[in-house]
Amino acid sequence: MPFRSLKELDPSEGTVQLYSGNLSQQHLGSGDTVLFPQPSADPNDPLTWPKWRKHVVFLSICLFSCLNNFSGTVLSDSFFTISEDLQVSIEDASGLLSWVVLTQGIANFFWVPTAIYFGKRPVFLVACAMAFVGAIWAAASPNFGSLLGGCIFGAAGGGASEALGAAIINDIYFLHERGSKMSWYIIFIAWGSSLGPLCGGYLIEYKGWAWGKWLSAILLGVNLLLIFFFAPETRFRRSPNPSQGLDSGAASDIPSEKVENDKFEHLEVGSRSLAPNQTSFMAPRKTYLQSLNPWSGVAADSSYLSLMFRPLPLLAYPACLFATLAYSLALAPTVMVNTVSSTILIPPPYNFSIGAVGLINIPGMIGQGFGAVIGGICIDKWASYCARRNNGVFVPETRLLLFIVPTIIVFTGIVLFGFSVEQQMHWAVIFTAYGLMSVGLTGSASITMTYVCDCYFPVAAECLEMINGIKNVFAFGLVHGVVPWVTRMGYARAFGTLGGIFGGLMAFVVPLLVWGPQIRHHTSSKWRLVSWELE
Predict the structure, then answer these.
(1) Measuring CA to CA, which of 135, 192, 228, 476 is 20 to 30 A from 217?
(2) Distance CA 169, CA 157 (A)
(3) Cβ(60)–Cβ(125) under 8 Å?
(4) Kind and range of the H or E element at 4?
(5) Coil, strand or helix at 403
(6) Which residues, in sequence order, are bridge partners of residue 28?
(7) Residue 374 and residue 377: Cα distance in Å, rounded?
(8) CA distance 352 to 201
(9) Using N-to-C axis directions, what is the helix angle for 460-489 and 318-345, rounded to 10°?
(10) Which H or E run contains 259?
């Protein structure tokens, strides 16, 4: 299994000519935005799909990510009720969340290589079917062991939505669209985690805990139909093209191709696409019925075993390691609050009902929405502005400057939450603190994951696999450890310590901002970490 440098797969090293008056490449409409990656002339290339089709595919997968987390967290406010009904301890009942989180993380390490080898469409169909069956199993469970088994089985399928949901962005969207699309994906995940306890609290209070899973099964069943009918295969073998890099203007004298309104039916195709003697080998456009076929063959350039182990060395890349830390630590405070919220708000002086405890997710969703704006629309606009001021050259590190905004907000929310709970301040202060810390769950995660996709485009799926897998393992440890931690140290000291760790580790963004391009160049050209057969 030979190891290659990343530069052998992507000569650009993440730095590309995003805006240019040079007409040797395909541009967006009549403007100067260069399309990266450059779409091929193959009519089945997902990059050439019309916008409406891309959005329908993306929405179907984002809904899977949302409903997977909805199903996983819908019982989180009813551990006390479940412990009484099924005669188990509250600690055992909390395993319905902790083991689900762990299973989803570990499942990434199976689903991502499987999707690369067999295709994403069959993986999404099987995984969503597993989540659907798992919800039915859990809803119909007569005892706790069966309930836990159903939740874990569903989580094993739902894990496919974690990394692959983000990886599909690279399949169907261009570089200038990645930030906003990544933020949409992240907010669907975050809102699924918030809507689960928010809706489940009241539903379980009046209908019983089983109905939380019945509702999940109904929604997942509808989502399975959406994926079957509207999510074709997006895997496409795209040969690396050195002319897409920084010096692309000097690399080609070929006539340009323009894109009208980002709809490729209106391409003005020049001689650049294919030589005349190659057109006979172009595959015909698939019909709708052909696109429903889940089988698209297997990857020819790697064995399944090598794909299983390919992601492990990639964690050494600085951007991948930093994104893992950022996502894990942005998730940490929200997981801790979801674990202890019922023990804080149900007893005096707050006296919340089970259903009312879920209301803490309303400011959480507001904070997540604000973070998604920062990590999506804002970073795309900022990156565009910086690229234009840099002679049209896009540098991935420009996205990281706005990372400072959610970092400050999250740090404030963590410290405020611990202090307000310790001092038993008004519940509105607690809710506000949770809203502040929720900004990072979408803002920090979206910015760093988009940065990883920019830097390591050819191995983005594997990098996202590592990020999502490790952050879920980290969350599993927090769910198990938060209660003893706050019991021993108190809320102010425990969350103050977490805030210090968060602020200290997030400061590592500074070296990436200052020396990021040099680090990328060195690691891309010198570090042989990618196990990949090149043809």
Answers:
(1) 476
(2) 20
(3) no
(4) strand 3-5
(5) helix
(6) 259
(7) 6
(8) 11
(9) 40
(10) strand 258-259
| pLDDT tens-place string over residues 147-195 | 999 999 999 999 998 888 888 998 999 888 888 898 899 999 999 999 9
What residues have CB less than 8 Å from 59, skipping those under 6 apart? none
DSSP string, 369-417: HHHHHIIIIIHHHHHHHHHHHTTTEE-GGGGGGGGHHHHHHHHHHHHHH
Task: Count CB neighbours of 385 within 10 A.
Answer: 11
If one counts every other C-beta atom within 10 angstroms of the C-beta of residue 260, the result is 13
Q: Answer left, alpha or beta for residue 256, where phi above 0 means left and psi between -120 and 50 means alpha.
A: beta
DSSP 8-state class, residue 5: E
Please name the residue that has the structure tokens 């890099």.
245
**What percentage of the chain reaches a pLDDT higher than 90?**
52
- Looking up tokens 């706005």 gives 402
Residues 438, 190: contact at Cβ < 8 Å? yes
SS3 for 471-513 is HHHHHHHHHHHHHHHHHHHCHHHHHHHHHHHHHHHHCCHHHHH
Q: Which residues pair with 129 in a beta bridge?
A: none
Identify the H or E element spanning 102: helix 95-118
CA distance 456 to 530: 11
Q: Kindly report the pTM of this predicted structure.
A: 0.85
Nearest to 375 by CA among 105, 187, 97: 187
DSSP labels, 17-67: E-B-S--SS-EEBTSSBBPSSPP-S-TT-GGGS-HHHHHHHHHHHHHHHHH
How many other C-beta atoms can be found within 10 angstroms of the C-beta atom of residue 293? 12
Which of 200-214, 280-294, 433-447 has the largest mean confidence? 433-447
Residue 444, SS3 per DSSP: helix
Separation CA 50–CA 230 (nearest Å): 13
d(Cα 394, Cα 16) in Å, to the nearest integer? Answer: 5
pLDDT, tens digit, 9 for 90 and up, residues 477-506: 887 788 889 989 999 999 999 999 999 999
| Dist. CA 414–CA 355, nearest whole Å | 24
Radius of gyration, alpha carbons of the chain: 24
Type of residue numbered 231? A
Q: What is the DSSP string of 320-362?
A: HHHHHHHHHHHHHHHHHHHHHHHHHHSSTTT---HHHHGGGHH
Peptide bond into 349 cis (omega under 30): yes
> What separation in angstroms does the CA of 398 have from each of 150, 445, 514?
44, 16, 10
User: Please, are residues 111 and 48 in contact by the beta-carbon 8 Å criterion?
Assistant: no
CA distances from 377 to 176, 183, 373, 398, 441 (A): 11, 8, 5, 14, 16
Pairing of strands 528-531, 3-5: antiparallel
Integer Cα distance of 380 and 382 in angstroms: 5
Q: With contact defined as beta carbons under 8 Å apart, do 442 and 194 qualify?
A: no
Q: Residue 369, Cβ neighbours under 10 Å: how many?
A: 17
Residues 6 or more apart in contact with residue 239 via CB below 8 angstroms: none
Contact 72, 104 (CB under 8 A): yes
Token pair 């929720």 is at which residue? 438
Question: What residues pair up with 105 in beta bridges, in sequence order?
Answer: none
